[in-house]
Write a structure and sequence with these properties.
The protein is elongated and about 130 Å long. It has a domain of about 90 residues. Helix content is about 40%, strand content about 15%. It is of the alpha/beta class and about 475 residues long. This is F-box domain-containing protein.
Length: about 475
Amino acid sequence: MQPAGRVLCTGCDLTVSRDMAFSPTNDALQTLREDVHPSKGVYMSSSAAQDAEKQARLFGREIQRLQSVTRTLQQHRKALVQFSQQQRALAAPIRRIPRDVLAMIFQEVNCTTGTLLQFPLRGKPCAIILSQVCHKWRSVAVQAIDLWCIEIKVNIPALRSSAKASKTTYVPPNDRDVYRFEKALPLYLVRSEPHPICFDLVVVEQDLTMFRKIIAAFAAHFRRWHCCMLSMHVMQQIDDEFLRVEESIIPEQLCRVDIISPIAEPIGDVTLFNEAPLLCSWSQCINHLNTIPGPAWTSITNIRSLLRQCRALQELNVSITLPEGGDFPERTPIPLPDLEFLEVKTDNLYVLYYMFWVLTAPSLTTLRLHMGHLDDYRMWLWPHDIFDRFLVRSECVITEFALKSMPIVFFRPSGFYGVIERLSDLEILEINDIEPGPPEDVLAEVAIQRRTATGCKGAGESIVIMI
């Protein structure tokens, strides 16, 4: 008989007392597992096993309770740390800065980091960062309109050119860059209202679909355009898809337009700028003068429509063509009282005739004329009668005159010398491809005929005479 209250496991030295708390160590448990293994034929009594299991469950519940207490204490500690940080933040001096002073600080920071939103974005823009610090900063930043009135630039050909100039690898625009810009752009367009918008939007034809939402965002704020640079295809898409259905929209703040054509691209008749009451500068010039223009240049009809509506023009730089089989529009007068600078590139001499027929420009001081595709015009007689009527009608004083790629007869009575006689107030004369004789002889003849001191700069292809 074994003593009461004790269980003796034959074959081992382990003795378990029912009167004692069962708290075996790891080594003891391992020894127990080995000693009572069935393969050894040694077994514990069922009551001892039950006691061990009960103690294990108690330990498990105690572990869970302690873990729960630990989590609760951690949460309380985190809340206290946050409360402490909030109290310190509330007591910080920056919290006491008035809202108007804080807005001035934001504007200064924005000016320091740059006032240009350029595609592709490299990092988060400064204004957006400032608006995400806290509720007060967001409120101040959103209401500080000047913070969002910055220049916006999307110019894909310029990115390619700059990469080539710096000998770096050009990376075409990707969906991720476009998506990031699509998210940032509306914030600037909406939060800068009602201030005018200045931007570049030059996208090549193959990327139009990728940039469609960006183009649509600019078109939605057409009334606020102030200064813009557009590629021909972008302008055509805005006119056809976004504004054609709302012809009543007028760009009331538009001041300057530059139309860019990296290559000779068809433009068609675009009318979205034909009613811009403040438009003072229009530049749509093709540099490929010695190529056949075809539909790449804007038509004389479209230019006439523009000039009739935009009476505030001060600068006009335009490439004009007469479409094949087309007719000249009616020759009713077009007064441009503020026009000071006129530069015309054309492939048809009669376009120049037409411009002198219809224009009245009393403020004109600079006149520059270019001719392209000259196969049919080896020598050219200046249209004195038409030009005389233009000068008399306008009563303008032209101080700068240029003829580029326009070979004309120089010394004949109906030649270029007659033009010099009519422009008695000239200060700068730029000519090339003149006949007869070398350019130096022509310059000497001009000096003799004018009987005034003449300073000559350059020779050959381009001649500049300071009279």
